[in-house]
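Lecture 7 notes: from sequence to structure.
We start with the chain below.
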Amino acid sequence: MKRASLLLLVLLSLALPVRGHELGTTKVNATFHRDATYRIDILVDPETLRNRLGILATGARPLPAPAADYQKLIEAQAALFLQQVHVRFDDASSVPRFQYVPLQTRAGAVTATIRLEGSIPAGARTFQFRYALPYAPYLLTVVDEAAPGPPERHWVEGEEMSKQFTLGKRSPPLTRSQTALLYLRLGFTHIIPKGLDHILFVLGIFLLSTSWKSLLSQVTAFTIAHSVTLALTIYGIVSLPSIVVEPAIALSIAYVGFENVVTRTVKPWRIALVFAFGLLHGMGFAGVLGELGIPRSEFVTALIAFNAGVELGQLAVIALAFALVASWSRQKRWYRQRVVIPVSILIGITGLYWMIERSAW
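Predicted structure tokens for the same chain:
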């Protein structure tokens, strides 16, 4: 029972404050101009940024405010924001100018750009960047006008310093094995720890399954479905806007959670429903993968590796849930009343909350 309670507490602590698909919500584009100036554009969710800065300033989450006030509130914290950014040329730091570029709407999501500008020191040979505020890995794209060719892209982990870029020179492209390992890791981290919506959906499937056969049939249906739409969406054959896909994914989570409460067994038609929900989740994965800057020469490698990472993440969720709770309590008479029903209700409520939140994006 203590382990079941721990699972509930973990879900309660994570469910409401976190949005799904954290991976990719922050993007950084650095441009080095021929006149020895630089511009770094940081694409952000203004609400998330305002909350992060408020917590840093006061230790508490700020009170809700109208979206129209975000610019004024964030500009008031410009000095604090710049403390979370490190622009380095060789061994010297550069303090950029701060500018807030007004709100935009991209694929149904409200975003803003923080623009940092400054001068490149004379004779500088290398550049590094650190941005301490993102919750997850973010994509850093570097355009150097003195080095002809495509932009360089590099994934930076959370608060870490980026790799060192050589000014005026392109780094060699990733090998096939390096690309596979990179996107395998990104697929896994899109589930654990940042894909809470997908985690809850997989847990919902797991909770009602009384045998490995029924669990495997649902997971297999889900895997095949999201693999199909992931590929079709990435190749541009199928497309739905995120303003439709994201609330629908949240609704699928709510449905699975509440269905667990009203039924005790896996019905034959549930596999068909899980397959249909998998098609939606595949579009959600594709929405993220489409922003990852996949090299065209290794597109298939990256696509397969990302999908494999997602599957490993889902299997890890099932293994963890089994080890923490089901391995010792699944055969107990109280398992349904004390584990399945309360956790499923929490999953259902969270799904409804996300559906309303995402519908308002």
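Points to note: Residues 299-329 form the longest helix (31 residues). The chain has a mean pLDDT of 83.
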